[in-house]
Every structure is written in C-alpha cells, then in structure tokens.
Amino acid sequence: MADVAAIAGVSAQTVSRVANGLTNVDPSTKDRVVAAMNEIGYRPNSAARALKTGRFKSIGVIMFTLSTFGNMRTLDAIATAAAQAGYSITLIPIALPTQVELLGAFDRLGEHAVDGIIVIVESHILDRSDVSLPTGLPVVIVDSDAGDKYSVVDTDQAAGARDATRHLLELGHRTVWHVSGPEGSFSASRRRDSWEATLVAAGADVPEVLIGDWTTNSGYLCGLELAKRGDVTAVFAANDQMALGLMRAFHENDIAVPGRISVVGFDDMQEASSFWPPLTTVHQDFGAVGRLCLEKLLDQIDGNSTSRGVAVIPTTLIERQSTAAPASGA
Amino acid sequence: MADVAAIAGVSAQTVSRVANGLTNVDPSTKDRVVAAMNEIGYRPNSAARALKTGRFKSIGVIMFTLSTFGNMRTLDAIATAAAQAGYSITLIPIALPTQVELLGAFDRLGEHAVDGIIVIVESHILDRSDVSLPTGLPVVIVDSDAGDKYSVVDTDQAAGARDATRHLLELGHRTVWHVSGPEGSFSASRRRDSWEATLVAAGADVPEVLIGDWTTNSGYLCGLELAKRGDVTAVFAANDQMALGLMRAFHENDIAVPGRISVVGFDDMQEASSFWPPLTTVHQDFGAVGRLCLEKLLDQIDGNSTSRGVAVIPTTLIERQSTAAPASGA
DNA sequence: GTGCCACTTGTTTACGTAAACATGCTAGCG
DNA sequence: CGCTAGCATGTTTACGTAAACAAGTGGCAC
C-alpha cells in the first residue's frame, strides 16, 4: 500500500479510501491511485484488514461427510449466497459426528478467521442440554432440535414423512413399512416418528422398522429382508438412496414395483426421476435451507436478530411411478 | 494476549511462545500461562498472526458447481487432508465456468487469506495459452490440459474410456455408441476422444456422438433417440448419471439391458451398484485426486516443488450387470 | 471582504502477534 | 572464585490497514 501511495503521490490513507470505495475522493486522484494499483499489482492484505476491523468476511461451515446428497446441496446454496454477500466459506469437515469431533472442529474454527458458524451435522449431540458449543460466535444449526439454545433451520421432515405415509395409505395399502436412517441421526428419527404417528392416527398396524445407514447398499439389504415376506405392499424409505437399494432387491426377486410393492423415498435427488421405476419421493428444498442459514447468520453477525428459534422449510411430495394401489389380491 | 500475560505475570512474548509450542519455556511458567489462557478463554487472533507471519494456514478451492458427484468427492478428500495438515479450506463457488468468472473468483481469493489455490473447473479455459491466472500464489488444477503451465492432477480418463469401449468390443459388439458430456468440458472431450480412438484402432465404425450435459435427464433424452434406432447394441455414457437416464429410456421402450443393449457408465458413483441393472462403469479414485492435489499444493507452498507437471490417477473398470454379449441375432 | 462550511487529503495511532535483539540468571569449568 | 556458555524471559519493533483527528482549499452568502 505504501508503494501505491508513493507512486500515486498520495498518502496511504487515500489509497485505503480508494480501495474501500469511499466517496470522498476526488475522481482524478482516484484515477491516479487506481493506475498505481494496477501498475504494481496491489492486493489488499485481508489479514491486516481483518486485524483492524475485527471482521473477517468469512463464515465457517462444520460438516460431517460431504458425501450425502443433501448436505452437499445445502453447502452449495450456502456458498453461493455467501459469495453474493461478499463472504467466503471456510470448510471444516469432521470425521465422525461425535461431540468430541465437533468441539474440536469448533476450536479449530475459533482459531481461524470466521465471523460466524453453520453446523451441518446430522446427529442429536447438540440437542442434549448438557452439551454446549463455545459461545461468542453467531451459530446456525441445520436440522436439529436445539432451537431453544441456537438458531436452527430445519426442513419440515415430519410433514414430509407424513405425506409419504399418507400417500401410500390413501392408495389403499393396509400399512406401510419403513426403512429408517441410522440410530443417531436427527433426521432419521424425525422421519421415523412421523411415519409411526401417521400409521397410528390412521389406525394401521405399525410394522417393525428396518434400520439402514442412508447408503444404497443398506437399502438393498433391507430390501432382501422385505422380499422374503409375503405381506409387504408398501415401503417408505428414509432417503432416495435406500429406496434405490430396495428396488434393486425387489427387481432381483422378481417383485414388481409398484405392481406388488410400492416404494417412496425422501430427498428427491436429481437421479430419482430416472430410477426404474421413477421414484415417488419427498422433495426437500436444500437451496432454501442454505440460503436461509446464511441469512439468519448474517442477521446475527450484524446484531439484528436473536440467536435462537427454528425456521422450517416445507417439503413437497413428488408422485412418480413407484407407487400404485395394492394388487387386488392383497 | 496482554490480559493473559498480566494474569500469568509474564510478558506477552512468553505467552506467544507458549501458544506456538516453542521449547524454550520453563514448565512451571508454561503451566501458569496455560491456566491464564483457560481462565479468560484466550484464542489467538489468526488475523494478527497471519499479518505477522505471512502465512494463513488456509487454501482456497475454486469450484464450478458442487452438484456433480465427482467434484464433491474430490472436495471432501481435499478438506479432510487439509484438516490433517492444519489447513482450512476456503471455498469459492463460481456460477459459470467462464474465464471471467474464474478470474473474478481468483481475485476474490487473492483478497482473502489463502496460501495456495486448487481449481476444480471442468472447462478448457485454462488450457488456452493466452489465458493465465494471476501469479504469485501456488496453484494446482484438477483435470486440465495445462500441465505445461501449472501443476495438474488428472484422472486417467483416456484409459478409462478406452477400457470401457474395449470391454464392449470384446464382448462382441460391432461398435459402441457414445453419450458425451457437454462441449466445453475437458473431461468430456478426453473421454470422447479416447472412445473414438479405441473404435478406430479396433477397425469399428464410429457412430455419431450424442451430446448430453451430465444430467440424468439429458441421458434420458439421448436414450430416447437411441431407442428409435434398431442397430444400437452398446452405449458408453460419459458418466453414471447419463447412463441411468439411458437405461430409463430403454426400460420405457421395453429394450432389455443388457439383453438388447449394453450400457457402460463412468465415475462409479455410490448408487451405480444399485441401478437396475447394476451398472458396469469406470471407477475413479476421487479420494486419491483430492489427497494428491493437497500434497502437491503444500509442496509448492513450502517451496519444495516445481509448479508444473501432470500427475495421473488411474481408473478401474468395474464389471456389473449392465453389459453382456450382443444378442445372437444382432 | 469576511467568515463559515463542505470537501479532499494528510497525520497519527492502534489492532494482536512474532521476530530480533537484549537482559539476567544459573551452572559448569579452570 | 571468576568467567563464560546456555537458557529463560523481557523489550522493542514492524507487519498493513482503517479510524479518528487535523489541516488545507475553495466557494458561497452576507
């Protein structure tokens, strides 16, 4: 900056003003400064700027595994919205969704330069009242029950699971089986609870739950189990990938979908419309989740907003060809 | 830091030494300092540290769309490896893979605090000799032809496409059709060129290429085209998602896969093994790509390495059930 | 003509840290 | 017993920027 000032024949302060686009600079002076900047390839030093202003223009995202479809879409939306707001994203992956790992990530982020943090960790650990994140930094959490302690953005998973289950019941199925996500997952238990409540409300039997781990392969294994039974006509899988695994198992056992068994998924991943058969599923608006996360976080950073409360993003049931009325003989 | 020093009764410099784990500190003094740190919840200010040291302990990743499977896996590996090396990831998404966008992202990253940059943009823009990135920062590029100017990590797409094509020829197919990725994509043209070269080398006809855009839906549309023809027995799709779309189109037209048409994909995404039929595809080791990117970048940052050259990650053909010998009548 | 105000530009200072240098203490050796 | 080497610790300084304050210039109204 000093070099730029020398070349342009002005003070460093004036260079600073030009760099920050302040108004009180004479146009001719500004031109000289800009020319000098280009001449020596000046780039403002963000570290010094951050040191002076106390703002980093960066937000941290703590994620457990990028490899699930929804997390990635959410991250994409956050990153895009952040870029528009002039913020960059600092990504901290954690290897396991445990409290220790999460707190470690928080520490690392505390040492790095962020103005706020978004946590995307599908786990109940933050819901326990005895677990708290270090304070001092604005935080937004995705898909959690901790709305009383933090600001939370949540997809309306209960409504989605209810719609999926009800859809199958309305088609005439006596009951609906469920392939759940893993035990510790908040989203999994929300979907499962809502499925069960919907069955109970409709007076339907509640079959034993099969538990997967979100992967297609776990869905496949559950599908093999279900294929052995003769009484299954409808299955609600807690995500599209497991639904895909289910359908593979049914295909291999010559069970027609939806002829003999109807299948519903959850997520509406891009590929779902091209599964065979095209999958009826619950659409989640991950883009809206990401954008809202950023909006709430920036509000906190700017001090305009409370730091708790839950915002819910609605879901939509997308009917494709994997569901139908049960066979007349059933 | 000053507060910590006052509480511990030492100088700020000693606190700095403790914070950085230097050796020349008396254990009892160190304990006092650590106790004081915990007492007031001291966190080193990374901006000040970066200002002083010139190192940010952060690397930037410029990506075009997180929503493709491979990019995400690569990012995941980079982030994990970076965390282990004590670096954080700053993510800069770009809306379009154009030169303007890319340079803009580069500028933004230059203003932010990074020690090096990884570019994951499927596009030829960097290959043109008249396009250069601003210098001064170590750069690693994924899947590009610019190895003479930059350090590049590339999957061996040519070998993968060759293996896929040859696999189908060896099964007895007269020729192999191809559904390509979009025009501007480096990966797409590499796979397409290699497919064509393999056919020519085998003395097979080279059918007209169908062009998709990586999405399942574009694959579906191409599949509808192919379904109209009677002479297609084998198709190599440039990624798994388009292969899925192809198979949907074939299913809808009662064309058996692999009975009447064999299909091969590219990527080996997690779901591919549960497609119906399970997809024969070319496995890419995205984890290795990400790890190698980071390794090469850190070498450059530490000054141990040249800033150009190509590293190639091998691919593996995974044979599943979407390929078979052509029907005897064909 | 005088005084005041608006506007541009310069000067001083401080942000929190770590490098370089300086000091003081202890132990070991002749 | 005195000198020196080595180690723990303190002092000074600088990193690049932006806020706060100061100063200079010109125009306009009375």
From TrEMBL, chains A, B:
The entry's keywords: DNA-binding, Transcription, Transcription regulation
Q: Which InterPro entries match?
A: HTH_LacI (IPR000843), LacI/GalR-like_sensor (IPR046335), Lambda_DNA-bd_dom_sf (IPR010982), Peripla_BP_I (IPR028082)
Concerning PROSITE patterns, the annotation shows: HTH_LACI_2
- Tell me the protein's name: LacI family transcriptional regulator
Q: Which Pfam families match?
A: LacI, Peripla_BP_3
| Signal sequence, renumbered to the chain | none
Superkingdom per UniProt: Bacteria
Show the CDD domains listed in the entry. Answer: HTH_LacI, PBP1_LacI
Q: Where is the HTH lacI-type domain?
A: 1-53
Q: Which SUPFAM superfamilies match?
A: lambda repressor-like DNA-binding domains, Periplasmic binding protein-like I
